[in-house]
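so i finally got all the pieces together for this one. its two components total, 596 residues if u count the protein bits. some of the lines might not be protein, just check the labels. i wanna see the whole assembly predicted at once instead of chain by chain like last time, that was a mess tbh
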Amino acid sequence: MNSTRKFGDPILAVNNISLSFGGVKALTDISFDILQGEIRAIIGPNGAGKSSMLNVINGFYQPQEGEVWFDGKLRGPLRPYEIARQGIARTFQNIALFKGMSTLDNLMTGRITKMHANMFWQALWKGKAENEELEHRERVEHIIDFLEIQAIRKTPVGRLPYGLQKRVELGRALAAESKLLLLDEPMAGMNLEEKQDMCRFILEVNDQFGTTIALIEHDMSVVMDIADRVVVLDYGKKIGDGYPDEVRNDKDVIDAYLGVAHD
Amino acid sequence: MSPMILNTIEVMLNGLMTGVMYSLVALGFVLIFKASGIFNYAQGVMALFAALTLVGFQSGQIPFSHLINVVFGTDYHNWGPGMNAFLAILLTMAVMVLLAWLVERLVLRHLVNQEPIILFMATIGLAFFMEGLGDMMWGANIKVLDIGLPSGGSFWWEDVTRVWATEGSDYYGMYIDVLDLWAAGIAIVLVVALTLFSQYTKTGRALRAVADDHQAALTVGISLRTIWIVVWSIAGFVALVAGIMWGSKSGIQFSLSLIALKALPVLILGGFTSIPGAIVGGLIIGVGEKLFEFTIGPLIGGATENWFAYVLALVFLMFRPQGLYGDKIIERV
């Protein structure tokens, strides 16, 4: 993607994040930011700390050092569900869906934090709750159309093939209408055609809904095509940060990916 | 009809009624197992504790009065004449919610991400603790629970069925306890209410989400702790209903927590994750054990009701380990 796209202020900034599990250092002194409206990629070889970084952003891990700024405010030690309510949605590398529910129900559950009607009216299934339900339904149907999954609306997602499950998971994350969308290897394990579809969806989400996206990806060629800026991690340290073209030609990055002997 | 057939029908009917009682207890197990994967050994004791508390409130007993009297040399037993059943039920429910909150705060919170067996052991501990607590708070004597539900044989049903018998036989009509009919009615209402709640409310949706996948539930903004408190409160409510029905039927005694273990074969039959399964499983066990006792029992010396349910469950485990309605267990290797 060209570097002439204009973005807003940082929606998220991590400063000097360090995370360790016992004696193992997963992340060391990582800092970068994500600008409003951009597609930011985090890449790196296996075990580089990409998923750990995502888990820090969405609150599954609490870093020992460093700070996270989200939406202009310094974030305290919040729980994952609180962070989700603040407007960060995510998908997982190995898919975490409500497997017993239909596609439609999965997406509706993605909107659960947006549902406000009080318990009494819901129990009576009337008035405000009904209108709200309709409104949520409308939004969700829109996403279903957008992701071209009309045919599987009523299918329990546990029965769907892998590629479609990934798409439903993206749909559920979209349903939350978050300010920041984290995608953990959205194309892992997909065939070429599925990858192209997913790329298209990611670009269209960013374009049509203006959603800021941070994604982890293994496939370098894909990343270079769709990301606005790229962070490169290796052994828990940041070794590169910039536009795809800069990163592609960076010596450290090439070394990390090609495995040059260090002396 | 010959009296023989009528007797068999009577046995089956009473089996159904017993089954409803088993189902009521099994329901509590299913709710917690679905939402958190914990087999809550303490469910039976929760029913006992709820019933004890209800009678305590109703009769105006002072909690821990025995302990207070021993420590301070006083002689307090009652704070007053007691209160009406409705108010006592509401207060008991409040106690069960408080209990749910305490369980989350003091037990579950510290065992997040532990193996299911660890959580199971914790509930065994909880069961013993609550049995002791109930004993200390309200005393160990057998109590009568009466919240005004009618009981005794139904004369109407006796009259209706008496004429079914063939002319000339001295058939006296079928016996069915009105209290059992009430229990059946209440169980139906309870299941319908639970189903509506889980299908059509935001909290119900969150409950189903948590039951399905913890991680995914967190990322859509559902607080696991809140849901656990809700689930344990609902299980406490079901325990209260079960405690009321069991207590009204046979008095409140500490063996109630052992009867509750009959829920285990019920769950093996119905499946640990299915509410309809708990109901159907309970009915099958209830009818099965009564019919077995009636037909085969006399041939082998009787008292088959103690073990029939467990043997049936064993047979089931061999052919359908996930139960009638449970999720099929597929492990990818």
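The mean pLDDT of chain B is 89.
Residues 3-262 of chain B form one domain.
anyway lmk what u think
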